[in-house]
UniProtKB/TrEMBL annotation:
Subunit structure: Component of the dolichol-phosphate mannose (DPM) synthase complex.
Family named by the database record: Belongs to the glycosyltransferase 2 family.
Regions annotated as coiled coil: none
Listed pathway(s): Protein modification; protein glycosylation
Protein name per Swiss-Prot or TrEMBL: Dolichol-phosphate mannosyltransferase subunit 1
A GO biological-process term: protein O-linked glycosylation via mannose
Domain Glycosyltransferase 2-like: 1-131
Described function: Transfers mannose from GDP-mannose to dolichol monophosphate to form dolichol phosphate mannose (Dol-P-Man) which is the mannosyl donor in pathways leading to N-glycosylation, glycosyl phosphatidylinositol membrane anchoring, and O-mannosylation of proteins; catalytic subunit of the dolichol-phosphate mannose (DPM) synthase complex.
Subcellular location as annotated: Endoplasmic reticulum
Gene Ontology CC entries for this record: endoplasmic reticulum membrane
Keywords: Endoplasmic reticulum, Glycosyltransferase, Magnesium, Manganese, Metal-binding, Transferase
SUPFAM superfamilies the UniProt entry points to: Nucleotide-diphospho-sugar transferases
Enzyme Commission numbers on file: 2.4.1.83
Length: 193
């Protein structure tokens, strides 16, 4: 509904269907189902998940690949909170919510990764498939659960500092309901992991 599909259709015209594979869904069905839908069409051994609005800059993908090869990591996660990573375009409230969510998660779950609410990641395809079978969360908790379950299953996680740039068009869906859902999800993960 935000124009992403139309933008992607234009890119297919420019770069060709051999470079960009567009597999739209009938309506917005949630992040987890989008991952499953994408995995059905992925042909390689690795899958990169990133925001389509380019808040996640593609220039970091080469660094993700280098990091994965360096340590044969199962997951390489972009981090805004380590090294020269950072966030651009967020107000103080949004930065505090994100930092607070990551801090609480670190204290309660000891996940072994510094940025749990971010979604810019490289996965070995078979690892992503196994994690998707285990994860039950929806919304913002989903990203966190992916890392927590990965640690629980003994998968290795590498990190690459990234710069996150807030979207230019549209607005974040982060509101009071999402924050309450996140806290409920965090407590559920704490109780079950």
């Amino acid at each position: 509904p935000d124009g992403t599909q139309e933008g992607a259709e234009q890119l297919v015209k420019i770069y060709g269907p051999d470079k960009i594979l567009l597999r739209p869904r009938a309506k917005k069905l949630g992040l987890g189902t989008a991952y499953i839908h994408g995995m059905k069409h992925a042909t390689g051994n690795f899958i990169v998940i990133m925001d389509a609005d380019l808040s996640h800059h593609p220039k970091f993908i080469a660094e993700f690949i280098r990091k994965q090869k360096e340590g044969n990591f199962d997951i390489v996660s972009g981090t805004r909170y380590k090294g020269n990573g950072g966030v651009h375009g967020w107000d103080l409230k949004r930065k505090l919510i994100s930092r607070g969510a990551n801090f609480l998660t670190q204290v309660l779950l000891r996940p072994g990764a510094s940025d749990l609410t971010g979604s810019f990641r490289l996965y070995k395809k078979e690892v992503l498939q196994k994690l998707m079978e285990k994860c039950v969360s929806k919304g913002y908790v989903f990203q966190m659960e992916m890392i927590v379950r990965a640690r629980q299953l003994g998968y290795t996680i590498g990190e690459v500092p990234i710069s996150f740039v807030d979207r230019v068009y549209g607005e974040s869906k982060l509101g009071g309901n999402e924050i309450v859902s996140f806290l409920k999800g965090l407590l559920t993960l704490f109780a079950t992991t």
